[in-house]
């Protein structure tokens, strides 16, 4: 399966991609814990079948020191003991916010209550934006058939400039 289209080789595609990455940088620099960000991005990417994003975010997480155990258990977080209550709330929000077509009610009140219990307003804004942004990135990469496996941590440094 080959890449269908290289967004960076197209002037408009490159402008869009740089701006999307710039928005992601705002989230990355927020007070939302970095490990929570990696968990959310990885889980949404798993659900969406985005091999490129799973590769990207798990490699960056490992390079930043996240344990292999936590990375390997993201897909089965409900049945795992290695995640905090706050991380579980974020993962539930990521799943419900990603599976909108599967859950006609969207994010449940119960999940929203748990997220509000663990995150302040700035962290909540970052978390909601993160779920939206990773889903957008997943969809772009899946549509274009951008494959996983070749990502090297840090290879997109300076992209937003």
Automatic annotation (TrEMBL):
Leader sequence segment: none
InterPro entries linked: AhpD-like (IPR029032), AhpD_core (IPR004675), CMD-like (IPR003779)
Superkingdom, natural source: Bacteria
Protein's UniProt name: Carboxymuconolactone decarboxylase family protein
One family name in Pfam for this protein: CMD
Organism: Nonomuraea monospora
Domain Carboxymuconolactone decarboxylase-like: residue ranges: 26-96
NCBIfam families named in the record: ahpD_dom (TIGR00778)
């Amino acid at each position: 399966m080959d890449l269908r289209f290289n967004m960076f080789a197209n002037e408009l595609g490159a402008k869009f991609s740089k701006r999307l990455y710039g928005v992601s940088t705002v989230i990355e620099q927020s007070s939302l814990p970095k490990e929570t960000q990696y968990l959310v991005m990885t889980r949404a990417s798993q659900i969406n079948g985005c091999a490129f994003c799973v590769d990207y975010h798990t490699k960056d997480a490992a390079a930043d020191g996240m344990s292999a155990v936590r990375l390997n258990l993201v897909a089965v977080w409900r049945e795992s003991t290695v995640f905090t209550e706050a991380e579980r709330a974020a993962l539930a929000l990521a799943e419900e916010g990603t599976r909108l077509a599967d859950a006609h009610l969207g994010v449940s009140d119960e999940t929203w209550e748990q997220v509000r219990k663990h995150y302040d307003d700035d962290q909540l804004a970052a978390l909601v934006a993160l779920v939206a942004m990773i889903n957008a990135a997943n969809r772009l990469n899946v549509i274009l058939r951008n494959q996983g496996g070749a990502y090297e941590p840090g290879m997109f440094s300076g992209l937003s400039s």
